[in-house]
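User: tokens in, sequence out, please.
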């Protein structure tokens, strides 16, 4: 694939792939000189971009479009991020420069030139070059050591793999969110080497190495901010590799059952969770029987808990053995066996809900309602409203609509917000469409009433105080698309900032002057925050202001307004730079 193939990559294409927001950020990164090590070889462009950490970017042609990859969190999610934009702009600039100076003798060497040079070198010299580079490049050195261990003619060198796993997994210090991606990529590289080992037919060795890796990871995960889940995905990858290796190695079922049970019972990170299902084909009848024997012996030591009873400390072991026993019960298909497990802990309303749901899933609706009502009565007045909704659904099933709505109304009065208004709406329609009008009027009247005028039901209602504005009422009316009513409530009593912006968007078509007033009033406060995110939000509002002023034939007013902003905020260079993207 030649450089010519990438000619479709230009500023217009980059803007199309990234969208205005990411394009503007990427352009700023490019202008700040953050792109390093730009290289193109066989139609693939790669570079590093300095951000929170150094991110690796690759661009290439993929069919009739541009393929891309970035090691940042957004890149992991498949987004064409600001780093991709920055590298794309750097490549476009370099390409244009090379086109202008294509006849110069001192043109920079390319990787094609390097390839031609290497092909002329003696093999021993190439080996020496590679080893010298490996001394400085830890990733290359690790890769070469693992390849040597894998291809050892005598046997696989497991010690080398264990050392590599330990180096990749042990954190040394806390790994913050910004470094978690790099940490996960290091783990993934070692996983790839284990997958290659499995493909070579070394299944038993991979079983041993994946268990070693997961044991190391169990200790290290507590020192990693894995908010994005990238390290967790590598842990899943290791477990899947372990399962495949066990299949290929035909692991002895009883010993495997014991190891899996011990893992599942002790792991704080749910390693091998649900192993009795995942490994059923590997364990066979013998392994499954051993697994069940171990589980039942552990379960016999678990005490029963009644309402309000709790162990002195949260017992993760209890939670895990409960999950194991429930999985075994579900495999039998006997709902009574499952409920017998669940009854060991009836300390909270949610425990009754789980039993009720199990019976409902089995089609035993009378038993389901009985358990739900029992839990509701035992824990009154501190209700779990999920249990109340379950009961209401069962009442509807039996045509007891008034009782169902009475429960949902009680919930709404304790938390009069959009979420509970929507629930009231759903249940009123369940009772019949004509029913909603009456309940809607009652709900809105309740929200407009002063706190002292409201009927108080339970302690939660007594703790409730109406906020100083009418945000929840406005939010409800916006959900109902009653935009004029929402506007009137907001103007009369105020509302939250995000709701003003929603109101503006709703009024743009028929009341552009109202929308313009809302947008314009929020621009200066954003600029005063003095950060790039606020600047971007201000510029987005300015685009809306410009569009509305053009509609209102106030173009000159917008030009004057923009000029005034440039003068007032001339010292805020990042903001002034973003202003150039408006027109």
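Assistant: Sequence out:
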């Amino acid at each position: 694939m030649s450089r010519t193939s990438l000619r479709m990559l230009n500023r217009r294409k980059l803007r199309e792939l990234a969208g205005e927001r990411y394009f503007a950020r990427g352009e700023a990164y490019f202008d700040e000189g953050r792109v390093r090590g730009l290289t193109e070889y066989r139609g693939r462009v790669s570079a590093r971009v300095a951000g929170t950490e150094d991110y690796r970017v690759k661009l290439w042609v993929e069919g009739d479009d541009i393929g891309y990859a970035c090691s940042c969190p957004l890149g992991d999610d498949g987004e064409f991020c600001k780093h991709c934009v920055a590298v794309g702009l750097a490549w476009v600039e370099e390409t244009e420069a090379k086109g202008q100076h294509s006849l110069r003798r001192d043109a920079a060497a390319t990787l094609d030139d390097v390839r031609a040079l290497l092909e002329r070198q003696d093999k021993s010299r190439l080996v020496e070059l590679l080893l010298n580079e490996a001394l400085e490049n830890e990733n290359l050195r690790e890769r070469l050591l693992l390849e040597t261990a894998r291809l050892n003619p005598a046997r696989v060198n497991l010690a080398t793999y264990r050392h590599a796993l330990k180096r990749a997994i042990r954190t040394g210090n806390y790994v913050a969110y910004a470094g978690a991606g790099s940490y996960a990529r290091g783990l993934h590289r070692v996983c790839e080497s284990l997958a290659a080992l499995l493909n070579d037919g070394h299944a038993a060795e991979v079983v041993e190495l994946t268990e070693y890796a997961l044991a190391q990871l169990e200790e290290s995960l507590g020192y990693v901010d894995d908010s994005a889940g990238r390290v967790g995905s590598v842990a899943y990858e290791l477990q899947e590799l372990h399962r495949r290796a066990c299949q290929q190695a035909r692991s002895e079922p009883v010993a495997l059952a014991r190891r899996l049970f011990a893992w599942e019972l002790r792991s704080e990170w749910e390693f091998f969770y649900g192993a009795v299902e995942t490994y059923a084909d590997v364990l066979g009848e013998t392994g499954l029987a051993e697994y069940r024997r171990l589980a039942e012996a552990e379960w016999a030591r678990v005490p029963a808990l009644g309402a309000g009873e709790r162990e002195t400390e949260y017992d993760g072991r209890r939670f895990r053995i409960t999950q194991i026993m429930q999985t075994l019960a579900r495999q039998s298909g006997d709902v009574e066996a499952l409920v017998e497990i669940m009854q060991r802990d009836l300390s909270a309303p949610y425990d009754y809900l789980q039993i009720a749901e199990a019976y409902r899933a089995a089609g035993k609706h009378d038993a389901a309602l009985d358990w739900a009502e029992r839990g509701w009565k035992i824990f009154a007045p501190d209700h779990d409203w999920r249990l109340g909704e379950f009961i209401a659904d069962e009442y509807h099933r039996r045509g007891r609509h008034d009782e169902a709505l009475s429960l949902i109304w009680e919930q709404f009065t304790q938390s009069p917000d959009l979420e509970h208004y929507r629930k009231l709406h759903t249940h009123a329609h369940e009772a019949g469409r004509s029913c909603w009008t009456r309940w809607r009027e009652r709900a809105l009247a309740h929200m407009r009433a002063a706190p002292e005028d409201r009927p108080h039901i339970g302690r939660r209602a007594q703790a409730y105080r109406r906020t100083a504005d009418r945000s929840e009422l406005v939010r409800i009316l916006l959900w109902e698309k009653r935009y004029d009513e929402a506007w009137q409530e907001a103007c009369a009593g105020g509302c939250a900032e995000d709701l003003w912006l929603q109101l503006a968007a709703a009024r743009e078509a028929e009341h552009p002057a109202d929308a313009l007033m809302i947008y314009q009033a929020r621009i200066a406060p954003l600029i005063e925050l003095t950060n790039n995110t606020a600047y971007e939000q201000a510029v987005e509002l300015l685009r809306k202001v410009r569009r509305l002023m053009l509609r209102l034939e106030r173009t000159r007013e917008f030009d004057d307004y923009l000029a005034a902003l440039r003068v007032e905020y001339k010292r805020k260079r990042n903001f002034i730079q973003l202003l150039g993207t408006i027109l």
